[in-house]
Amino acid sequence: MPATFETTGSLGLPTNYPLRYDPNILCAISRSINREKLAWNKNKSPVTGFDIWHAYEVGFLLNSGMPVVGILKLVCPSSSDMMIESKSFKLYLNSFNMERLARVKSDAIANLIKTVKEDIELRIDSKIEINFYEYESEKICCFSEYQIIDEMDIGDNEEFNYLSENPKLLKLSNDGEQRLASRLLRSRCKVTGQPDWGDIYIYLKGNRGLDPASFLKYIVSIREDKHFHEELCELIYTRICNFIQPDHLAVTCVFTRRGGIDITPVRATSIDLIPLALISANILTQKTFRQ
Questions:
Q1: Catalytic: 189?
Q2: Which of 131 and 33 is assigned the larger pLDDT?
Q3: pLDDT higher than 50, residue 29
Q4: Where in the chain is the domain with CATH 3.30.1130.10?
Q5: Coil vs helix vs strand at 247
Q6: What is the pLDDT of residues 149-186, one digit of tens each?
Q7: Which residue of the set 51, 196, 199, 262 is catalytic?
Q8: Start-end of H helices in the chain
Q9: I need a labelling partner for 122 at 20 to 30 A (CA). Which of 27, 44, 89, 172 fits?
Q10: Facing residues of 147 across strands?
Q11: Which CATH class is domain 147-273?
């Protein structure tokens, strides 16, 4: 009898859940599908970005059978043509649970990192950064200077009655530089329809800014939309670019952990606008409120 059982797969189809290492379970998705709909970066302006993954349920065995557990941090460039679907990544990582990777712990960790790095890079055709944490180290806060707008007064006659992404809600302000944050980000999984919660952080600088109350209403309007995390970040980035055309912009969406994995996509006009700790695999950052 094979050591597998049936479960719901990464794209909503039945699949075998392996109890031994299986790289074939990884599912890569083209970024171009959603970007074509968005007319992503149609002006060819400078844009950079990364998808930061924290996998909290990583475990494997030493040759003796002793388990080792820890946190895996991956940093994938948004310039890659493909991205990894998160449910398949969870199943892939679970396939290491009963694998004996080496006699000595340091060698086993090195084997895990090497294997995961090679498997991911093969499927997205791009280099990634990766690190394994057996113990949590001192963490760095990346978003301490942002204004949380969730308690904004939107007016006595206003109601949050938009449940489909509506960029027409956005209004201008005279602020030339802004750091806005909301803990009310919510969308739905593109495959299962389950809710995805998170925090969002916007930095922009230019001749004009966003009216904070209007941005809050816009964030709420997304609640019933279905997106992959990476796509939603690029959608919001595109809407703000098209509306304001700022000189500098960074959009970071920090999603709540689901299936033992959280994903933080960030898109920016310049890498200088992205916290270095966030995109370094060698640094663990402080969790945000909803992360």
A1: yes
A2: 131
A3: yes
A4: 4-133, 147-273
A5: coil
A6: 998 877 656 677 767 899 999 999 999 999 999 999 99
A7: 196
A8: 32-38, 86-94, 105-124, 212-221, 229-244
A9: 44
A10: 180
A11: alpha beta
CA dist., res. 115 & res. 71, Å (int): 15
Q: Give the mean pLDDT of the chain.
A: 90
More confident residue, 43 or 12: 43
Residue 36: both structure tokens together: 């074509």
Q: Catalytic residue among 22, 119, 189, 225, which?
A: 189
Q: What residues have CB less than 8 Å from 275, skipping those under 6 apart?
A: 140, 142, 143, 285
Q: Which residue's structure tokens are 């990464």? A: 10
In the CATH hierarchy, which top-level class contains the domain 4-133?
alpha beta
Residue 82, H or E segment: strand 82-84
196 is catalytic: yes
The alpha carbon torsion through 60, 63, 66, 68 (nearest 10 deg) reads: -30
Residues 6 or more apart from 14 whose CB is under 8 A from it? Answer: 6, 7, 8
Sign of CA dihedral 123, 128, 131, 136: negative
The token pair at 92 is 């892939």
In the block, residue with structure tokens 């299962």 = 192
265 touches 51 (CB < 8 A): yes
**Which residue(s) pair with 200 in the sheet?**
182, 253
Amino acid at 155: G
Cα→Cα distances 191→11, 42, 73, 222, Å: 6, 27, 24, 16
How many CB atoms neighbour CB 241 within 10 A? 21
Nearest to 264 by CA among 171, 123, 274: 274
Q: Residue 186 is which amino acid?
A: R
Strand order in the sheet with 48-61: 129-133, 67-77, 48-61, 261-268, 248-255, 195-205, 177-188, 147-148
55 within 8 A of 72, measured Cβ to Cβ: yes
For 183, the token pair is 């803990």
| DSSP for 10-62, written as a single string | TTSSEEEEESS--GGG--EEETHHHHHHHTTTTT----EEEEEEEEEEEEEE-
Alpha helices in 44-143 (DSSP H): 86-94, 105-124
